[in-house]
Amino acid sequence: MEDKIEKHTIAVLVDNEPGVLARVIGLFSGRGYNIESLTVAEVNNADHLSRITLVTSGTRMVVEQIKAQLDRLVPVHKVHDLTDEGPSVERELALLKVAGTGEKRIEALRLADIFKAKVVDATLTSFVFELTGTTAEVDDFVGLMAQLGLVEASRTGVVAMSKGATGF
Amino acid sequence: MPEQTLTGAQIVIKSLKDQGVDIIFGYPGGAVLPIYDALFQQNDIKHILVRHEQAAVHAAEGYARSTGKVGCVLVTSGPGATNAVTGLLDALCDSIPLVCLSGQVPTHLIGNDAFQEADTTGITRPCTKHNYLVKDVNQLARTLHEAFYVARSGRPGPVLIDIPKDVQFADGTYVPPTEVKHKTYRPQVKPEIARVEEAIELIASAKRPVFYTGGGVVNAGPFAAKLLTQFVKLTGFPITSTLMGLGAFPASDAQWLGMLGMHGTYEANLAMYNCDVMINIGARFDDRVTGKLSEFAPGSKKIHVDIDPSSINKNVAVDIPIVGDAGAVLEDMMRLWKARQKRADQAALKDWWKQIEGWRARNCLNYNRTESVIKPQYALERLREALRGKEHYITTEVGQHQMWAAQFLPFDQPNRWMTSGGLGTMGYGLPAAIGAQLAHPDAIVVDVSGEASFLMNMQEIGTAVQYRAPVKIFILNNKYMGMVRQWQELLHGSRYSNSYSEALPDFVKLAEAWGCVGLRATTVAEVDEVIEKMLAVTDRPCIVDIAVDPKENCFPMIPGGKAHNEILFGPEDSPSNATPEDGMVLV
Which CATH fold topology does A6-81 show? Predict the structure, then answer.
């Protein structure tokens, strides 16, 4: 049971001060933990608080260590394991540049419609699509576009929130 | 209180005074000149000029460890700060509360590769508990007070504050410590009472219990050590401790089994291996203690008390984790134990002690007593006798002599033993001894040293002479980096690659060159005489060169990758099958 690798989404509320991201990232590299994705932005301007959402994987013991180590950092206010703490929603946003003409271009647009991706830039030979969805949905769409002239992909990584009325 | 306008440098000094700092260890340079100028114009804080910044940090560690207060360091930018890095990490590993102030190039030059510029907060981030770069003079006082709070609260550790030179010159507002409250940092001190209740039930049901305590008890203060002693006496259980925890429980007590771990006693390690209930208070299941993890105390239920939640379930999964200060937890444990009229299983305990006495009878610290050569253990036994009943503090360097000191010098009180445990920093002992001596001017302070470790920070003799710190440097000179040589003998076919101490100085002449007293013992008969002479020196440092058996190894020893019941007792145990292949890769 100890050795099973689990994937966890962890939300961390931190003081938005210089070096705070370096502390978090340094913790992961220094102790050999995995980061699958990490997003960060200020969420409370008045109190200078930023929210970091990170997706990591490890054995149960390692995941517990990661949370304890994060919580130990002085500028960290709260650490929540969204994977452990009940149902949550996870989303990421992707921008995909797809170039091509003819049938491929039409097919790309058709698939974008099915995935509810928005066209945010268009030329005669290219589109930039914006897609918001779960990581799996984005992966699927990227996989399809790869066959239709995908030039460039930019993804935000996961942001997540617990379901229900209770706040962080 | 009216707001006071001061320069940044004055704010630094005032903050330190308000934090109760009486001694600061440091070394000046361009980027801290304003602070040195402010230091010059006051008399409350004594500045100790070291000879190298690493030593400033170790001296502050010795001061902090021997007083329970926060140690304080002042260094300049660039090389000043980078030289301090080893000391900072040493303090982090051993949970020593320090505040280190470093100068920085002026804010407008940061990032320009200016002269003596270093990314000090970047470099020290993984070497400190927390660090700050203060760019606004009005944040300086607040940051300093926060730093002291962070350094001493929870699991203590070093905190660095990087202060650009222009901030030291700028005028700003001072705020006193009472007005500063940290936004987030509130370590849990009081334990969850339900967990303590569970622990009490488990302790009462134990048949083969053992207390395994660590530096956390020492850090929790003398009161915690007193509570530990009372609780251990109350239960009648055996107790062992890590290197860092020595002195929290009196070594002269019959329930004391000695240190555990790689060079711990047979009885301590076998008690750990065979116990059914382990009560870990303030220790962290370090690899030097656990040996082979899969065979660590295999049949035991484990209670782990630690103020740092990240120490729990890190290396070893435990049954009852308790987050809290060792003193607070022990207080609750005692109270509940008495209130519920708990009593240990006396019949089982009697059998357990009988078994332990059997292991103790093995007399694992015995060594080959001979008249022909000074055994290092003998020198320490004689030092022990000479120090008996005298107020004394011991520091060590790192290596064989350190382990022998832990085995042969008994500590009946906490805060008397200062050694580099986690990081294992050679060169720690002499500056730490200076720090301890300055905090306790009338006590005897001995740095138990090896000739190789001593050379690493021997420039600090100058500091000791300057401030008339009569530290005793007790060199067990075996002309080898002894622990390196021991591992080469056991694991690398006796190929002594670069572990011989070539071109050693004459330590007696070296002492004399500094105006100190130098003494030497080359025969067994001279040892007592030299120790007596050493203890008579009270106005200057004294270097003692004891020529010990160069071939002596430190036993007992659990080789890397072996379990607690696979102990080597001495040279008669064949080294060929001493260590499995997978153990060789371990350090």
Answer: Alpha-Beta Plaits (3.30.70)
pTM summary value? 0.96
What is the domain partition of chain A in residue ranges? 6-81, 88-161
Marked catalytic residue, from B418, B426, B456, B483? B483
SS3 B295: helix
Across the A:B interface, residue pairs with CB atoms under 8 Å apart total 43
Helix/strand/coil (H/E/C) assignment for every residue in B429-497: HHHHHHHHHHHCCCCEEEEEEEHHHHHHCHHHHHHHHHCCCCCEEEEEECCECHHHHHHHHHHCCCCCC
Cis preceding-peptide flag for B550 (omega within 30 of 0): no
SS3 label, residue A65: helix
Q: Which residues contact B435 (CB under 8 A, 6 or more apart)?
A: B25, B58, B59, B60, B61, B62, B63, B64, B66, B71
Sign of CA dihedral A80, A81, A85, A90: positive
User: How many Å apart are CA A148 and CA B485, to the nearest integer?
Assistant: 65
Indicate if B483 belongs to the active site: yes
Q: Is B585 exposed, middle or buried (0-12, 13-18, 19+ CB in 10 A)?
A: exposed
For the record, the structure tokens of B585 come out as: 């890769």
B17 in catalytic set: no
Catalytic: which of B14, B69, B129, B165?
A: B165
Q: Specify the CATH class of A88-161 in words.
A: alpha beta
Partners of residue A77 in chain B, C-beta under 8 Å: 183-184
CA distance B220 to B414: 10
Residues of A with CB below 8 A from B136's CB?
A: none
For every one of its 587 residues, what pLDDT tens digit does chain B have, with 9 covering 90 and above? 556 789 999 999 999 999 999 999 999 999 999 999 999 999 999 999 999 999 999 999 999 999 999 999 999 999 999 999 999 999 999 999 999 999 999 999 999 999 999 999 999 999 999 999 999 999 999 999 999 999 999 999 999 999 999 999 999 999 999 888 888 899 999 999 999 999 999 999 999 999 999 999 999 999 999 999 999 999 999 999 999 999 999 999 999 999 999 999 999 999 999 999 999 999 999 999 998 999 999 999 999 999 999 999 999 999 999 999 999 999 999 999 999 999 999 999 999 999 999 999 999 999 999 999 999 999 999 999 999 999 999 999 999 999 999 999 999 999 999 999 999 999 999 999 999 999 999 999 999 999 999 999 999 999 999 999 999 999 999 999 999 999 999 989 999 999 999 999 999 999 999 999 999 999 999 999 999 999 999 999 999 999 999 999 999 999 888 888 889 998 887 555 555 566 667 76
**Contacts of residue A73 in chain B, CB cutoff 8 Å?**
130
Give yes or no for a contact between B428 and B434, defined as CB atoms under 8 angstroms apart.
Answer: no
Answer yes or no: same fold for A6-81 and A88-161: yes
Tokens of B92: 């982090």
Could B184 and A72 be called an inter-chain contact, meaning their C-beta atoms sit closer than 8 Å?
Answer: no
Q: Torsion angle, CA of B407/B529/B431/B88, rounded to 10 degrees?
A: -10
Q: Per the CB < 8 Å rule, is A76 touching B183?
A: no
Q: In degrees, to the nearest 5, what angle opens at C-alpha B175 toward C-alphas B169 and B176?
A: 125
B313 touches chain A (CB under 8 A): yes
Q: HSE-up of B391 (CA within 13 Å, CB side)?
A: 7
Which residue ranges form the domains of chain B, and what is each CATH number?
Answer: 4-179 (3.40.50.970), 193-360 (3.40.50.1220), 376-547 (3.40.50.970)
Backbone angles phi, psi at B269, to 5 degrees: -70, -40
Cβ pair B171, B3 in contact under 8 A? no
What residues in A contact B143, CB-CB < 8 Å?
none
Q: Would you say B45 and B39 are in contact if contact means Cβ atoms under 8 Å apart? A: yes
Amino acid at B133: L
How many other CB atoms sit within 10 Å of the CB of residue B106? 16
